Amino acid sequence: MAAASAVTAPVATQAAERATVEVAPPVAAPPAPAPAPAVDGDMTARIEALNPGAFVWHPERATAGPIEIVVSIPRQIAYVYRGGQLIGATTVSTGRPGHRTPTGTFPILEKDRDHRSNRYNDAPMPFMQRLTWDGIALHAGAIPGHPASHGCVRLPLAFARELYSVTRVGAVVHITDEAPSAETALATARGVGMAIATSAPVPAAAMTGAMR
């Protein structure tokens, strides 16, 4: 009987040791970072302080998603969003009296880095992005601080180059008579029910139509 007791004692001790082992709770995953605000407060302040010909450009704020552009005629400012996040804003010059820039929502129809006007003395229109087949486009040009174009939306040259690099044919441009802030421009443009400008297919020869 003594021998039997000697065999069972270690077994009981091992069971007791196993019973006292504590299992660490699973490590919780760190919380996901909060999404960046659509508009940064510091960026908004810089936009409000822009002088004619100046712009703000931060494409790193959003690296994916569709590009949308909102041009405010009263404010002479254009806002650029990618995936709903503001990545840039610039002063612009829209159509002067008698050459009003049309309002509405337009897809970019054509892009030409080195376009020249067929109507206005072969005037250079760098980084042209066509919005209508009858001559309205985004392009680089003088920004005097007031509407001065023949109907196009002029952009500062450096900004026009940057914008050209991130857009594709089909990207949406909203042109509005509203005067929204950076925080409200995209929602305003999407929500006011502006008519979408549609263009029927045109012959290739017509794609070099007069630009303004």
UniProtKB/TrEMBL annotation:
Gene Ontology BP term (one): peptidoglycan-protein cross-linking
Superkingdom of origin: Bacteria
Domain L,D-TPase catalytic residues, every copy: 67-176
Pathway: Cell wall biogenesis; peptidoglycan biosynthesis
The entry's keywords: Cell shape, Cell wall biogenesis/degradation, Peptidoglycan synthesis, Transferase
Active site: 139, 152
PROSITE patterns: LD_TPASE (PS52029)
Annotated GO MF terms: peptidoglycan L,D-transpeptidase activity; transferase activity
Name the UniProt record assigns to this protein: L,D-transpeptidase family protein
